[in-house]
Amino acid sequence: MTRVPHDTATRPRPSRAIALQTPSRRLPGRWRQRLPELDAYYRQHVSSLGRAGDDGWAQGLCPFHDDHTPSLSVNLDGRRGGWICFAGCGKGDLVAFHMRLKGLGFRDAVRDLVEGTR
Ligand SMILES: [Zn+2]
User: How far is the CA of 73 from the centre of ligand 1 (A)?
Assistant: First the structure.
């Protein structure tokens, strides 16, 4: 008797549309609610991050350029974790920060933040 591999025997070949949605390319469910806590995240990745002012913004050393004066402001109060570098590195939200820091695309950055795969 010949054993046929279970998968090929019972499952139809996935269509291309389904194949494109393999788990590794899908965003985690409700990922926006599952992003790391802003204060903890930024303290881990921004050197010399000070206390947030009343407006929720704190200053620290920008990891995107050779920073010796705290040029980076991050918003520890908002929902998106906005940041801006006053030395010209740009601005964005928490996901954009992580993309740039780790050199990841959007989906991989979200997965990394939510699932901690890196
Ligand atoms: Zn910078």
Answer: 10
